[in-house]
Amino acid sequence: MENNTEVCCENGNGDGCHGHHILHHMKGGAAKMEPPAKRKRVSSSWKVQSSDIARNTFNPIRSIVDGMKLTPNPKKDMIALSIGDPTVFGNLKVPEEVETSVIKSIKQHKYNGYGPSTGYEDARKAVAEYVSEETSQVESKDIVLTSGCSGALDLCITCLANPGQNILIPRPGFSIYKTLAESLGIQVKHYSLLPEKSWEIDLNHLESLIDDHTAAIILNNPSNPCGSVFSKQHLKDFLQICETYKVPVIADEIYEHFVFSGCAYHPLASLTETVPILSCSGLTKRFLIPGWRLGWIVIYDRQDIFQEEVRKGLMCLSQKILGPNTLIQAALPEILKDTPKSFYTDTLTFIESNAKLFYEKISKIPGLTPVMPQGAMYMMIGIKMEHFTEYLNDVEFTEALVTEQSVFCLPAQCFDFPNFFRVVLTVPQEKLIEACDRIKEFCEQHFQEHPKSNGKHLHVRGFRPY
Predict the structure, then answer these.
(1) pLDDT value, residue 245
(2) What whole-number distance in Å separates Cα of residue 58 and Cα of residue 416?
């Protein structure tokens, strides 16, 4: 008994020893001792590491922009054409009906607690009614509400792919696809978009990338950063490849209906009865309220391909953060129903007018090649780098533009597409005109009429000057 007591005292405290003696005597000395606890490791210094997921999370936009030397010309006000946030300049207002619906949900005092992880039934039903087309009907059970469209993309990628598998993403394309996938150990393969064909998909290239480890293809239509809108036939050709290889689609349709005159938006799911699709969208862009963080996933699955695994997987993943903002969810039925059509048309008219004006002015600037968008909020502009030999690439070009002219355009290396830059079209028209004039002045000062190839400029797959 003495030996047992010594072990207890060495690894515990006096009370623990006393309790052991009592137990021993109560059981006539037959109590069995627990094995001694392992001594805890004592360290002389701290060593706290981040997880593999944290180390693998990398946003190229932030990395590139944070690394740029951005010192604006103090004699000129800064004009930022880089941020895809329609609220920055304050010129595009939220409809009063939308604001009223949120105020109403606040004053009801019913939506201050947790909601269902996939969203309130009334809100999911409202989304189902909003997105349903004659050829692609869905119900509330097919809707998962999320924290913004990026939250929807996160759930879809996490649900469909495992570490070691791959997903196909567009180049140029929204950088978050790569950020989300690679943080989880999922490989990304870039399929090419063709600027000379208004950024259509290089379908042959896409098809060549599919292998036994391909878990999904991401399609973005209308597009960020390109502003492209795919035709019905092009989407059907894309879907035929998905059907042939039995690869599901994550459709980033956050710019749904955000198309200019003469173009039409075709929801991907309205064009197929066989390919399973997870469509991601939300209030961010069409309703001009990115900070309200309300997005959704629509499950299109006529053949019940997602029934066994994917629906349950999305449900489980939604429980990680217990659903999006409940106040906005409560207002969602009225937002989707009561927003005036004039709000949509006025917004599109303004942005299309800016796109035409920007395209007209940039087309006349030596060394630049704009690609006219068909929708969304952006325009991509090619730089003929051989005429700007002072600069190695689009990053240096846009840095210098900030330094000299205080105009900040986003270098397209952020979208894995060098020697282009992206501009946002939501700025007030007077600022847009001023920005164009400054870009023209910059290019005229640095443009070399007779280019000297120094072999150092990056080239773009599939791009041919117009």
Answers:
(1) 98
(2) 13
